[in-house]
Amino acid sequence: MHREYLAMNDLQRALRAIVFWAVLAAAGGALAQPAPAPAPGFFPNSAKGGRLYQEKCASCHGKDLRGTPQGPPQIHVYYVPNHHGDAAYQIAVRNGVRQHHWRFGDMPPVPGLTPEDVGHIIAFVRREQKKAGLDMNAAMRH
Ligand code: HEC
Question: For the chain, where are the alpha helices, taking DSSP H only?
Fold first, then answer.
């Protein structure tokens, strides 16, 4: 009886350890890949962002941010900050995006941009979204 009790205890302890390490590993996987972010003190420049956008993003998202046959518009309520915040832009550029909102296929990663470059692009996109009259505080509904 005593022996059985001990064995049960050992088993429970082992199981608990496995669960603990599995949870830690899963959390670690997520933490090991935080969204890229500009260095502290970074000051975004939307004019620079506009040039980078035209070079790296316009072929799919459109020179006027209204989309092309290769990609969706950026002037769209899907892409205002509450739905796609700055981190979503950084991650999209670094890792690419699996098709999920539209039917244009996947977005490939866009090489050759630093997190600061992407910060400039975000400033440009936000400026244009505002100019187009999008509700920049729209709540996430999709
Ligand atoms: C080769 C075409 C292509 C290029 C180049 C491209 N994109 Fe995309 N992008 C797409 C497509 C297609 C989607 C839509 C995926 C979906 O939701 O179905 C998308 C989606 C996104 C999203 C939404 C991400 C999400 O989490 O849903 C962001 C943000 C984005 N693009 C930013 C950019 C920026 C910034 C650039 C330039 C640095 C860029 N894209 C260049 C095709 C492209």
Answer: 2-31, 46-56, 58-61, 86-95, 115-131
- Report which protein residue has its CA nearest ligand 1's atom 18: 99
Rounded average pLDDT over 87-92: 97
Which of 48, 80, 107 most suits a substitution to test ligand 1, by most atoms within 8 Å of the C-beta? 107
Residue 104, C-beta contacts closer than 8 angstroms, at least 6 positions apart: 60, 69, 70, 71, 72
Report the SS3 class of residue 22. Answer: helix
Instruction: Say whether pTM exceeds 0.85.
Output: no
Contact 61, 121 (CB under 8 A): no
